[in-house]
Amino acid sequence: MKELAQFVKERRKEVNLTQEEFSERTGVALTVIRKIEQGKTNLNMDKVNSVLKMFGHKLAPVSLKENKELNN
């Protein structure tokens, strides 16, 4: 979750948006934006994807086998 938190925070800052402005643009509650950027683990995937969509990304499940292949 640290990678997700860092990615979202860095990209948000690159486009010069506050958390509040980013919340308005993505249609995701400010509390959710804060939880993502803090690296919280109990997040709704649909909300996370709404945030990532702004940067042209999407979070999807990966099997353990796929994960091992990606990391080799």
Low-pLDDT segments: none
Order of helices and strands: HHHHH
Shape: elongated
Secondary structure class reads: mainly alpha
Please tell me how large the radius of gyration is: 13 Å
Explain how this protein is built.
With 72 residues, this protein is mainly α. The protein has one domain (2-71): lambda repressor-like DNA-binding domains (434 Repressor (Amino-terminal Domain), Orthogonal Bundle), CATH 1.10.260. The chain has helices at residues 2-14, 19-26, 30-37, 45-53, 64-71. Helix 2 packs across helix 3 (30-37). It is elongated and about 40 Å long. The model has no long low-confidence stretch (mean pLDDT 89).
Short description:
With 72 residues, this protein is mostly helical. It is built from 5 helices and no strands. The longest helix is centred in the N-terminal third of the chain and has 13 residues.
Which helices and strands appear, and what pairs or packs with what?
Elements (H helix, E strand, L loop, with lengths): L1 H13 L4 H8 L3 H8 L7 H9 L10 H8 L1
Helix pairs in contact: 2-3
Keywords:
about 70 residues; mainly alpha; 434 Repressor (Amino-terminal Domain); 5 helices; elongated
